[in-house]
Amino acid sequence: MKRLEVCDLTARRGSFELGPLSLEIEAGEIFAVLGRTGAGKTVLLEAMAGMFRGDGGRVLLDGQDVADIPPGERGLGLVYQDCGLFPHMTVRENIEYGLRMRRWGREERRRRSAELMERFGIAGIASQYPGTLSGGEGQRTALARALALGPELLLLDEPFSALDPATRQGMQAELLRIHEDFGCTVVFVTHDFAEAQLLADRVGILLGGRLLAVTPGAELMERRYCAEVEEFLGRDRN
Q1: SS3 for 223?
Q2: CA-CA distances (angstroms) from residue 30 to 25, 98, 144, 200?
Q3: What is the pLDDT of residues 94-126, one digit of tens each?
């Protein structure tokens, strides 16, 4: 499990600016970044992952500045909303991709991918390609691929927002099981109040590139906030 710290982070994307933003996420925590579309949630997640270097500030894992450490060497897994599966690879090949890059032997790769496919209930579609998968199957494959190397930090970018309600509910329960079984710190971004409240130990509310509040997930709708957050939550401060 990794402890994640973001210290005075700033990042610019065209006219959009994130931060300065500081945040501490404890090892083993499930942390939700909640905000509307365009709030900067994905930018923050990608900065945590090391997909780009911020314009200012630092990202630390277990107290170590990781600015010069490539994403693949940070001990993390990243899953996007659209799964990000390689369309020319089968389910098994997608799951084994990171293992192959790390030069695992063929038998080791097969054993690890078989374990994960069994764990996620996708062994029966091992030879299928992403274009033939349902939304739930695609997300299970993406999660298996992200977890193949045993990351200590799992980053999820609105992973369930495109799923139908029944599949989404099942995947939310799956996330809690993943957290328990794999013992990793989890950060996920969402625009869904109920999802954040249900899954997260704590919730950070990000609006307009600014982190305006951090609260226990169970108390998300009970606490009072600044006017901007109250409006986002659809509440009248009076």
Answers
A1: coil
A2: 8, 24, 18, 5
A3: 999 999 999 999 999 999 999 999 999 999 999
The mean per-residue pLDDT over the stretch 72-95 comes to 92
- Decide if pLDDT at 238 tops 70: no
Q: Is residue 81, in this structure, part of any structural domain at all?
A: no
Specify the pLDDT at position 197. Answer: 95
| Paired tokens of 69 | 């450490």
CATH number of the domain at 193, please: 3.40.50.300
Report whether 36 contacts 191 (CB < 8 A).
Answer: yes
Q: Are 149 and 99 in contact (CB under 8 A)?
A: yes
**Amino acid sitting at position 203:** V
Answer positive or negative: Cα dihedral of 52, 56, 60, 64.
positive
Pairwise CA distance, residues 185 & 202, whole Å: 12
pLDDT digits (tens, 9 = 90+) for 207-230: 999 999 999 999 999 999 999 999
Provide the domain limits for residue 140.
86-150
Distant-in-sequence, close-in-space partners of 190: CB < 8 Å, separation ≥ 6: 32, 33, 34, 41, 158, 161, 196
